[in-house]
Every structure is written in structure tokens, then in C-alpha cells.
Design goal:
single chain; alpha+beta; FomD barrel-like fold; 3 helices; 11 strands; globular
């Protein structure tokens, strides 16, 4: 990735999620970039307007830290609720960034992680339907299955965004440093 394809720290960017067929899936209107490197983008948002593919809109309910890595086929949303941190993990293409937005392809499968560390793989039926309808290649299927395994290992080993220190550092940074942007 070239230097120009990294969102700058402190900037506010749109996040666009697509489906395999190229149609827009979901758009988050604004996320504050807390860290942007060649490999990782970490952002924070709170009460962010989200637009669905059918035009419906809603606003996120709680502060969240988002984690994207260019080498993995998933991204992670860490949501801060009164009873603890919940994680919503999207199986997706690695992100790309251009002047318009941070973009990725959503591949239906999700893993929800609860504050007690338990987790569930979600939307396997939706994945099967879309795999057939949008003709996901076998290579993509293999990559996604491998990344489900990697993600489960990260969750169980408290690696990456699941590490307690990750949450402490980035939540504090978002709350303190980026409220003024």
C-alpha cells in the first residue's frame, strides 16, 4: 500500500461495507482514526449515523473501537456497554482506503464475543445463501474458513483487539485525545 492509502491520525473517515457483488451493504458516516499504519487501522466512534443498503438509517448506541488489519479477512468492533466490552467480528476482505472511505467486502459470517469471553459464530445460513447467489469462489470460501479459525484463536488467546490492554489503551485514547477533534 502506498503512503497516500493510509488514513491520518485524528482524521474522520467514512467506513463503507460492500457485498461480493459490488453493491453497498452499510455505511458508517464518521469514524475518528486513532492509528493508521500500512497494516492496521484503529478508529473510534460514538453515536455514529449508519445507513443500510435499503436507505434505512440508525445511530450506534455506544462508544466503539474498530480494528482493521490488511493481512486478515476480518475486522473487529469493540463496543463499550455498561456490563462490559462486547465484540462484533465481521468476516470480510482486508480493508482498502482511498480519499472517499475505508472499504471492505462483508462476507456474511460474524462472531459475537461476550464480556465473559464466550463467543458464537453467526449467520452461517446467510453465508450459504449468498455464497451460492453471488458465486463466491472456492478460494474465498477456504480463506474465510481459515480466518474464522484464526479469529477464534485470537479470541481464546486474548490476542490483538481482544487483549485487555488493547481495550484500555484505545478506549482511554479515544475518550481523552480525540473528543476535541
Amino acid at each position: 500500500m502506498g503512503f497516500e492509502s493510509i488514513p491520518k491520525e485524528g482524521s474522520r473517515v467514512k467506513i463503507q461495507s460492500y457485498k461480493h457483488d459490488g453493491n453497498i451493504h452499510r455505511v458508517w458516516s464518521e469514524t475518528t482514526i486513532l492509528k493508521g499504519t500500512d497494516h492496521v487501522v484503529i478508529g473510534g466512534n460514538n453515536r455514529t449515523l449508519v445507513t443500510e443498503s435499503d436507505g434505512r438509517t440508525w445511530v450506534t448506541r455506544e462508544p466503539a473501537i474498530v480494528y482493521f488489519h490488511v493481512d486478515y479477512w476480518f475486522n473487529v468492533i469493540c463496543m463499550f456497554r455498561e456490563d462490559g466490552v462486547y465484540y462484533y467480528c465481521n468476516l470480510s476482505s482486508p480493508f482498502v482506503y482511498d480519499e472517499e472511505a475505508l472499504k471492505y467486502i462483508d462476507y456474511d459470517l460474524d462472531i459475537k464475543v461476550y464480556p465473559d469471553g464466550k463467543y458464537h459464530l453467526l449467520d452461517e445460513d446467510e453465508y450459504r445463501v449468498h455464497k451460492q447467489r453471488m458465486k463466491y469462489p472456492d478460494d474465498i470460501d477456504k480463506i474465510l474458513r481459515r480466518n474464522v479459525d484464526i479469529l477464534q484463536q485470537w479470541i481464546e488467546r486474548k490476542k490483538g483487539p481482544f487483549a485487555p490492554d488493547f481495550i484500555k489503551v484505545w478506549q482511554q485514547r479515544f475518550n481523552n485525545d480525540f473528543k476535541s477533534y
